């Protein structure tokens, strides 16, 4: 009985430290890999500390996303260092090739977006696409909740595959930070103007994203410069719709403007659609309809390049294809956790 209590206490300690690590990451002088490892250990600690239940499953998913959010935001804790590593040009060049000489985002905005004498005009299409973008925060997790309620036996596999996409994607953000189109547009034009007038790049105009200074080590090449007319329509509509509430709201859901490749919005939505399709044709149709709408919205609104979406689709496909090969290792970890859990609750 004493051994069981010690195991449970240790497991809850892992959970507590894992929850606290992201909050303390700026104050603790430890390598980021240490704080992230501690944070990602929290879901495993919870699985030992609690018996299997829907509550525990939801809690483990919440802890996984808590660790993911910290891993997503942490590179931007030092904005200057992040800007020194960011990639700007290659997605512009690829998208321009895909768009036959023009960026698909600019083509769509020129064809569909409207501006009047008093500013942007928000039509039904614009509103639907912006809300489709905002709804993403609920879609991957809502899909897992549906599977948990309707087909609980399928939930572990669905959760592992969904969060594998999140975690692999955020690792790429650390290794190769990439600027999205709206951010590149806000700095590329001023950088070129600065070079033409022999001014230092520090005089470039401030981008629309709060707290970001437009300076890149990878100066935009002339052939990849974006047109300054490219808009970030989601933010424009957010300021229009939420008014004074937009700033606080954005500060909660934002956090790293240089995390665009691959698009995890698209990758995780595609994974959700594939998992929902396994549950039934109606759920699958809804999932794929949302994913298609979101993909169009991400490009049209200026949030992602087409190549970001393609990379997200490749990531999802790779997780799906390679998942069976990882099943023995995942099952081994599951058995080890189950054994510890059994010991932790042996006398309960």
Give a short account of the largest sheet: 2 strands, antiparallel
The amount of helix comes to: 55-70%
Outline: globular
Assembly state of the chains shown: single chain
Strand element count: 2
CA radius of gyration is 22 Å
Can you walk me through this structure?
The chain has about 350 residues and is an all-alpha fold. It has 15 helices and two strands. The chain has a two-stranded antiparallel ribbon with strand order 1-2. Helix 9 (about 155-175) packs across helix 15. The longest helix is centred in the C-terminal third of the chain and has 39 residues, at about 305-345.
Helices and strands in order, then pairings?
Elements: H1 2-24, H2 32-49, H3 54-73, H4 79-85, H5 89-98, H6 104-112, E1 114-116, E2 119-121, H7 124-135, H8 139-150, H9 155-175, H10 181-196, H11 233-242, H12 246-253, H13 264-279, H14 281-300, H15 306-344
Antiparallel strand pairs: 1-2
Please give a quick description of this structure.
With 348 residues, this protein is mostly helical. It contains 15 helices and two strands.
Key structural traits:
two-stranded antiparallel sheet, single chain, 15 helices, mainly alpha, 2% strand, 348 residues
